[in-house]
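Help!! Second protein's tokens look totally different from the first
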Amino acid sequence: MRNSVGIITEETTGLSKEIVKENRIEIVSCKVSWPEGENLPGENIYQKMREAEKMGIKIFPKTSQPSPKDYLSAFQKQLKSFEKILCITLSSKLSGSFNSAYQAREMLKEKERIFLFDSLNATVGQALLVLKAIELIKEGKEIEEILKECQESISKIHFYIFLEDPKWLEAGGRLSHLVANWVRKFQKMHLFPCLGIKNGLVKAIGITKGKDISEALFRQIESKSKKLAKNKKIRVAIGYTDNFEMAKNLEKEIKEKLKAEIPLITFLSPVVGAHVGPGSLAAAWTEI
């Protein structure tokens, strides 16, 4: 007997193995290509990026969305176990993932059983939407209600990312040299520019003061979440690069001072991290 609704999403969400296994989620992998970094020392891509910079290597990782074939394989697998499939993708304004998933669905006779949902978010922000969908499925909601509530949740998810150094965005052509220099000047004064996602696109959110990016990220979440009604609680997901201790410090602050639920502290996907660089720290929060 098939279950009601199964979930498919990308590995960029950073969902834990436990969450994936318990909820029988099918994960589609994005692609990172960096032949130049294969033999560099380092336990992860971020450490390797630091080594590459020291060695004067100017070629850094390249990323690409999953192919339609990748989604097709995931759809075919989930269709065997579930009546309906909910595929929650990276923002269509940041990646071609949604388009690849759409092409894959069109290849199937059972395409009416597959529902595509554009998260208009990424990484830990996208993960919060998946967690919301899991809750709704466990409540026994029908797919139409799940889609409706997830759509309403998009505007309630706040995603922030702070960079250790803007040079990685600059190297990738996503930030001008002039703007990168301004960011560095602010950081020397312990003023950290915050990037976020609004309407599916990465945008500058503002500047937050802190002794480091962990404190700045906490203050950003604290100041915005305080605007909620007093009886409202928040859920936070944290994404780190090669700075796990900084992520744990952030977790401690959020739990102690905001009394928030933190279901996920995850290694930030190299697909995202290859652009923002080592030392970056991200978090997303939503009211619950």
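Here's the second one for comparison:
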Amino acid sequence: MPKINLLPIKAAKRSETARNELLGMLVLFAGLVFVLYSWNSSIDEDVLETKSRISKMTKELKDLSAEAERVEEFEAKAKILEDKQGIIEKLKRQKQGPAKALHDLATLLTELDKVWLTSITENEQVIQFEGGAMDHEDISEFQIGLEKRSKYFTKVQLKVVETKVLDGVRYLKWKINCIADFSAG
């Protein structure tokens, strides 16, 4: 005769196995939730750190751009001041230039005994000298002296030479044009 086991041992084992599997699944699910939560927290921390760095860099960028604008403004002001200083220096040279040019002219005329000036006219930067001399060599020496020995007179050109007689003495009346640069000194 067959034996019938009426004790619920297999059902109890199945129930215990199912409970153990369910408990294992719950532990595994809880572990998975914990790992995902930790991973999410670390990503959130990285995002916050990155946002913080971005805001710091944005602030630094604004500060640097403001500083760059100030530097450019200072450079522009410095250039303006340098230009003004250059203009002032040029004006100083031009202020002293005519006196120095006349000194060069007086020195040259003192060395040449037979040359004299009767008038000096200036139109913008063109100066016209008029005067007299005893002979052509004296006029030539004066012209060469203006060209070579004075840095204030350039493009010296002899324009007119006429023979004149005054009280029985023959002399040459001449005109010389040149360009004056009084800032050359």
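Reply: Different proteins will give different token patterns, so don't panic. Helices lie at 9-111, 136-149.
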